[in-house]
Amino acid sequence: MSKFNQYILIPLRDAMRNQAERNAYFIQGKYYTYRYLAERISAIRCAIHDWQSEEKVVAIAIHDSIDTYASIFALWMEGKAYVPLHPNQPVERNKNIIAQVEAKHVLDSEKNEAYADVCQVVYTASLEYAKEYVDDWAEATDDDLAYILFTSGSTGVPKGVPLSRKNLAAFVEAFWNIGYELTQEDRCLQCFDLTFDLSVMSYLVPLLKGACIYTVPYEGVKYIAVVQLMEAHQLTFALMTPSTIQYLRPYFEEFDFPAMRYSLFCGEALPTDVALEWSRCLPNAEIDNVYGPTEDTIFCTAYRLRRNEPNVEHNGVLSIGTTMTSGKVIIVDENNQEIHDDQVGELCLSGEQLTQGYWKNPEKNAEAFWFAEDGTRYYRSGDLCFYGEGGNINFVGRKDSQVKINGFRIELSEIEFHARQFLGDTLVLVLAYTNSEGTQSLAMFIEAKEQDLQALKDYLASKLPPYMLPTKMIYVEKFPVNSSNKIDRSSLKKLI
Ligand code: AMP
User: Fold this and answer.
1) How confident is the model at residue 136, as a pLDDT?
2) 3 state SS of 441
3) How far is CA 47 from the centre of its chain?
4) Around Cβ 299, how many Cβ atoms within 10 Å?
5) pTM here?
6) CA-closest residue to ligand 1 atom 23
7) d(Cα 424, Cα 118) in Å, to the nearest integer?
8) Cβ(204)–Cβ(250) under 8 Å?
């Protein structure tokens, strides 16, 4: 039997069959039962059958709606993969993604004409339930794709990370191996946009145990909605980015969530003091710092916070722990030689969760993947790490100019690329800085005399998603340089 069926489709079908009247989702203030989810999946599958199309990758214009989630499961049951299109991202960027994956259809739970000139748009909310299509699945192998996510690319074009059905099933297997005991009584948070890979764990895994998933709307302030859901529904499981609780830190004293059983963090460095303070709001929860890039399917290492003993940490940042997968996680020096002591090196990842490579991007693949002497294929994460106590891995920082803004992965050079497209020869530099709330923001420096910024802002907004737009734009007549004649970034930062 395929691993994807074993770990995903069969448990999902069983939940829909055996507890049809229990709630699967709570979206925009409304509960949806497993029966209703099954009906929406069937309705969408009927429409997909009617296309009679061989396309393997279908786009979904994502919304906080039951039909968006049902579309994902319908595609999987039809042996297809999805690529999410974010409504707040520039249409041009989304069309570039459609073109890259050669999608012929877009599933959309809202009426939308934005992609009608490049694709057939299917309005899923209007599809009527006809026949239950739950038990029969189209033939697919574990090597077929489950989804493709596009992340910021340093050359100005987003790069696709395809994850196979085997990759996703291996993640689910590894997730259960950590020992999380979810049941149908659990109430779980889903606070991520579907363009972010942490969403896949949040919208999928609880369903495999028949639990109920509470989603955070796309509109409004996310961290406020998170707390409202936690309080009103006494949630028991939550995966969040550290930025989310960083915003909530001033209110920690007022919080008490005794029902919470597991509180996971991923996507960014987790400061130990924030994690410990947060732990006092959740007296009964295990708090885990999990780590992983999109390329290695959601996350692949885990560290459990110790409430009453010293933690493994570096510079106040909590360890990312040890591998939770059957795959190997190693730290290597510049010659790809494995480091076994406490020297800093680059973290490299291997195993069943690892993507086969970037979508149609041989150059990037040659840079990012390498083979060890024993034939194991590794991914260079770009993360600098070293072994701490008990083999727990400490996170030091990035090797390159990739930064995280509210958990979103950003190549600063992609922003600089678009600014230069607009400004011509002008020197442009983007830096991340810590704002007054303790989270990261972006500042753009432009080597030019002061001038009107609006046209540049409008141009960037037409090319980049909102989280990639700099919050500060600063003109500097001449960039300062340091003794090695490089741009002096620390002097520039002082201008923020
Ligand atoms: P993404 O592909 O968006 O999941 O981003 C992956 C990157 O986020 C990693 O390569 C790290 O740089 C960073 N990251 C993810 N989880 C953690 C963590 N727990 N601690 C520190 N950095 C993390």
Assistant:
1) 84
2) strand
3) 29
4) 27
5) 0.94
6) 268
7) 30
8) no
**Residue 485 pLDDT:** 76
Residues 3 and 10: their CA atoms lie apart, in Å, by: 10
CA separation for the pair 229, 231 (Å, rounded): 5
The dihedral through the CA atoms of 381, 151, 172, 214 has a sign that is: positive
Q: Determine if ligand 1 sits within 6 Å of the CB of residue 322.
A: no
Please tell me if the CB atom of residue 314 comes closer than 6 angstroms to any atom of ligand 1: no
Q: For residue 133, what pLDDT is reported?
A: 65
Torsion of CA 97, 100, 102, 108, to 10 degrees: -10
- Nearest alpha carbon, ligand 1 atom 12: 383
- Verify whether ligand 1 is closer than 6 Å to residue 193 (CB atom): no
Q: Which pLDDT score is estimated for 257?
A: 97
H helices of 249-328, in order, are 272-279
Ligand 1 centre and the CA of 460: distance in Å?
Answer: 25
Q: What angle do CA 297, 300, 303 make, to 5 degrees?
A: 145
pLDDT at 482: 84
Per-residue pLDDT tens for 354-366?
999 999 999 999 9
Question: Judging by DSSP bridges, how do beta strands 145-151 and 377-387 pair with one another?
Answer: unpaired
Structural element, H or E, at residue 166: helix 165-178
Residue 139 gets the label, from left (phi > 0), alpha (psi -120 to 50) or beta, of: beta
391: which DSSP letter? G
In angstroms, what CA-CA distances link 487 with 322, 400, 443, 451, 481? 37, 16, 15, 22, 4
Residue 179 has pLDDT above 70, yes or no: yes
